[in-house]
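Slide 14.
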Amino acid sequence: IVVGGSKGLGYGVAMGFSQAGADVVLVSRKQNELDAAAEEIMNDISNLMGDVFEGVCKEYLIHQAKQRKLPFIPFSIGKWWGNNPSIKAQDDVDVLAIDRSGKKAIFMECKFTSSPMPLEEYTDLVNATKAFPNIKEIYLYFVSKSGYTEPVKRQAEIDCAILLTIDDLFE
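Slide 15: predicted structure.
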């Protein structure tokens, strides 16, 4: 329960709790401000949950590695953010797992949105792999809360990419 959660410090606290995945109850004397704050938080819930969801996806890969269900045993698993010379811009990979030799990698995109993953998101991850020219074996994994568009499904079949749902993470 966040008293004064419609603006200022109270709003910031409410957003922080939401980002951490907590159930939040806002209390305020002004109903219109309260409604606006609640709507803003709910509209941004997918963004707020992004980091949490990426953590769940990372734990999935760790679990799969322990079960020997990945194409290799990862030496390091984490998020990557940096310069991608191929697109001449900053880029990121939600979860990146690399083997000890540095020649094999799993690139994972994790989307906690209310619409199916579009081909643009798929292409973004493919482009991110170009920031790693020394990786010789590339494995593409995608996790989407709301499924995938038909173009993504077709491209994934061509690329032998893995398309996962939230249910797959907890099997």
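Speaker note: The chain is about 40% helix and 25% strand.
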